[in-house]
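User: Show me a protein chain along with its predicted structure.
Assistant: Here is one chain, sequence first, then structure tokens.
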Amino acid sequence: MFKKIPALVAVLAALAAPLAQAEEGQLLVRVRALHLDSANKDSTGLGLSVNNKTFPEVDFSYFVTPNIAAELILTYPQKHKLYSNGSEIGSLKHLPPTLTLQYHFNPTGTLRPYVGAGLNYTNFSSVEFSPAVQAALKPSIKRNSWGLAWQIGADVEITKGTYLNFDLKKVNLDTTVYSAGTSAGKFKVNPTLASVGLGWRF
């Protein structure tokens, strides 16, 4: 009989493993403060740039396995001032949802680092230029951008199901700039996104 105990323990451990995962839950919801730092690379010759800013975001991570999760990052349209060689020439809003696939290295530990890669979609709206710029150049921009995104971060367990999160992303984000309907070059925002916040596992 005693010879059967190790086998019984192994069976019970195998049955308990998915239950432990289920107790923690497959959905992780985070609320973060995010700082956008733009690379401001411009090939139009106009010296275009947008202001950096800090704003709130929310994201949802769904764990397919204990190590692998898909994360959707959302916020509301963010307004930026648009500059040419340091002088304000207009403004625009951008809405940048991002979807990444993550690998979590230590899914049951107190410190849970991860890396991720995915795709960003950005929609530009409410694009406005000063009257003088509008009259001289008749400018416009491409309203949609698709680009790759990379991230590294970590969740730190504070209490059961509650986490402090640190996250760093690099996103390819650009738009084509037009003058009177003719392409004048590309403006690459390509921001670095640093964020900190709290997460809850359900």
